[in-house]
TrEMBL record:
Pfam families: Pyr_redox_2. GO terms for biological process: aerobic electron transport chain. Keywords: FAD, Flavoprotein, Oxidoreductase. Gene3D superfamilies: 3.50.50.100. This is FAD/NAD(P)-binding domain-containing protein. It comes from Nonomuraea aridisoli.
Length: 163
């Protein structure tokens, strides 16, 4: 039986797993990701970051996809083996969906910046805002890259200003 290995448990990895499971019942499918949850990153700006986490087992279990909870360290494309968390996992097909990660600018004061790139970052910002309830008001400003785009639409940067 052909073994499909997917690296990453975000939108891309999970949808690849769902698509592979739909294509054939004769595939063995494994998804490798270090966390227990699929994090819906576009929702991380919301007040409760926990709402943006969906247990991977809830999606992968019913479609028979195995979740290996580990980070892939190396990929040997000649031998068709990935190494993750001390395990060597052989594959016939590999889907690389390890996503992206914020790069902090090397600017003075950058260590005081907040971000909503990860659930940990969103938790830090939520806790910070909670601690600052005494602040007069929190003003969320949004600005569009195109005037035609609806407020809150995809691709729109959002900024928060404490006043
Ligand atoms: C605040 C915010 C708002 C956004 N809004 C929008 C929007 O409105 N519209 C839109 O289209 N997009 C939006 N995006 C972008 C969108 O969230 C990303 O494009 C999308 O999450 C990318 O999905 P992904 O599966 O490729 O990667 P990710 O969601 O980054 O998932 C990567 C996965 O790979 C795993 N991983 C990483 N390294 C390894 C490793 N070595 N081994 C195993 N697993 C690994 C991670 O743990 C994770 O499970 C937004 C992003 C953010 C942060």
């Amino acid at each position: 039986m052909s073994h499909v290995v997917i690296v990453g448990g975000g939108f891309a990895g999970v949808w690849a797993a769902v698509a592979a499971a739909r294509v054939s019942e004769d595939l063995r499918i494994s998804l490798i990701a270090p966390g227990d949850d699929m994090v819906l990153r576009p929702r991380l700006y919301e007040p409760d970051p926990e709402q943006a986490a969906l247990p991977l087992r809830a999606v992968l279990g019913p479609i028979g996809v195995r979740h290996l909870r580990a980070a892939v360290e190396t990929i040997d494309v000649e031998a068709r083996v990935v190494r993750a968390g001390g395990a060597a996992v052989g594959y016939d097909r590999l889907v690389l969906a390890a996503g992206s990660r914020l790069v902090r600018p090397e600017l003075p004061g950058a260590e005081r910046l907040f971000d909503v790139d990860t659930i940990e970052g969103a938790r830090r910002l939520a806790a910070h805002l909670e601690d600052r309830r005494d602040v007069t008001s929190v003003v969320f400003r949004r600005w569009t890259t195109s005037p035609a785009r609806r407020p809150g639409g995809a691709g729109e940067p959002a900024g928060a200003v404490l006043t």
